[in-house]
Amino acid sequence: MTRTTHLFIPGPTNMPDVVRRAIDLPMEDMRAPDFPDFVRPLLEDLKAVFKTTTGEVFVFPSSGTGAWEAAVTNTLSVGDKVLMSRFGQFSHLWVDMCERLGLDVDVIDVPWGEGVPVADYARKLEADRTHQIKAVFVCHNETATGVCSDVAAVRRALDAVDHPALLFVDGVSSIASVEFRMDEWGVDLAVTGSQKGLMLPAGLGILAVSPKAFEKSVSGTMNRCYFDLGMMRTANAQGYFPYTPATTLLRGLRCSLDLLSSEGLGNVFARHNRIAQGVRQGIDAWGLRLCAAEPKWHSDTVSAICVPDGFDANDVIQRAYHRYGLSLGAGLSKVAGRVFRIGHLGQVSEIMALSALAGAELAMFDVGLPVEPGSGVAAAQRYFGASVREELAIAV
Hints:
Layout: E1 6-8, H1 17-23, H2 35-50, E2 56-60, H3 64-75, E3 81-86, H4 89-100, E4 104-109, H5 118-127, E5 133-139, E6 141-142, E7 147-148, H6 151-160, E8 166-170, E9 189-193, E10 205-209, H7 211-219, H8 229-237, H9 247-263, H10 265-286, E11 289-290, E12 302-306, H11 313-324, E13 326-330, E14 339-343, H12 350-366, H13 375-395
Parallel strand pairs: 1-13, 3-4, 3-5, 5-8, 8-9
Antiparallel strand pairs: 2-10, 6-7, 9-10, 11-12, 12-14, 13-14
């Protein structure tokens, strides 16, 4: 029997059928005279997802990691001092990239389960009277641990001491899923990828750049070629790209942006929060805890669930996949074997979340975890039901 795999990892996410159809196209001429009529509005509409009117958005045929590299190499120089924090696998990889690119990285190690240490950032920025720190990095949503950090608070720390450092944000698993305000929060460079909240296959690295950051790209001395923003900007102004773009993914991106606009970004964020709250209710009912140490760190796009001592989370993941056709996220690096993850972002609904909880319950029960079958599903159902009743009451 052909089996459908139910995807509940934090990316790639489930792709809406309408997006799938949008990318199922013959190849097209990316130098055609009418191609700019498609490209220019696409790049302009992407700005709404970042909530910027002053910035520019660039789309590279790459993963989000490529957009990370583009952000760094275009605005900084070898030897520049940057302030970073490490509290999960993806914030660790960003630190590693910056070190390998020759930056002087001041990294604050934080327990996995917490987020960006704003108070520590503030102290270091206040002490930096000569402005040696050229950039401050924030991993908005640490996918490995299910932790979301306060970007606006980091901007306030910079402004409190009138520090000119650039503010970099990794929004790969947050942008288009949770609240993100590039202009309001004073973000200079924001990175995302196509395979998360934008509900596409992997393959597009997307970078939003503030005017201040673009000015820095002129003076930055780090070598760049494929990811050169100046080259990209010149081509984009004409409605083209400096090299072969991923045209089918761009057509899918157009469809995704239309879906987000139709639902309304505020409604998209509210839906993600509601579903995440329901999932967390289910986890509480299991008697398990999240890797995120406190509610203030809770992510609305992924929940990293700790298994009790004496159990291996990989057993749950293997059982869920092979027996029930359910893909759950694995624990990475320091939390490998200690957590499994449920991704709840992109095209996700209450029914989909309930199926993820039900499948996880089955797998945990099978491998002997002390979880009462149906407990998590019932708790989430009660939460979702109460939310619906509240909506109906408001509507009346």
